[in-house]
Amino acid sequence: MITEEIKKVIKNSSNSRKCEMIIIEVAELLKQANIQMTDAQWLSLVSHLSGMVYRSTHQKPIDAIDKELFSEVSTDSIKLAEKICNLFDDLHEDEKYLLSIHFESARLQN
pTM here? Predict the structure, then answer.
């Protein structure tokens, strides 16, 4: 799971320690949900999580999004994303929709 590219993303994160802790928790949640990701999917997810760490730490919310764009994403993927978003402080509520795409994609691939 942890490739050299992922290590580089973590190292370059605004808070590498927090980023690494979040990734460990996310890996456990994915295991519990029986979601397996490819290395490329992990890299994309870790990049997103690193961005979430930055936005949470620096109180930089994402722009509001149209939730209808995510109407075909499963409830399970959105709930998992919400659990992960709850690991952070001060994230915009819509962050879960963007994050859910990572899990939905992995579910569809399995």
Answer: 0.90
Q: Scanning the structure block, which residue is given the tokens 């994309």? A: 44
Cβ within 8 Å of residue 73, ≥6 positions away: 97, 100, 101, 104
CA 12 → CA 17, 20, 92, distances in Å?
A: 11, 11, 23
- Residue 20 in tokens: 């690494």
Amino acid at 26: V
Q: How big is the chain, counted in residues?
A: 110
DSSP 36: -
Q: pLDDT digit string (tens) for 13-44?
A: 889 999 999 999 999 999 999 999 999 999 99
Q: Which of 63, 62, 97, 61 is nearest to 80 (CA)?
A: 97
Closest CA to 2 of 49, 33, 52, 46: 46
Distance CA 93, CA 85 (A): 8
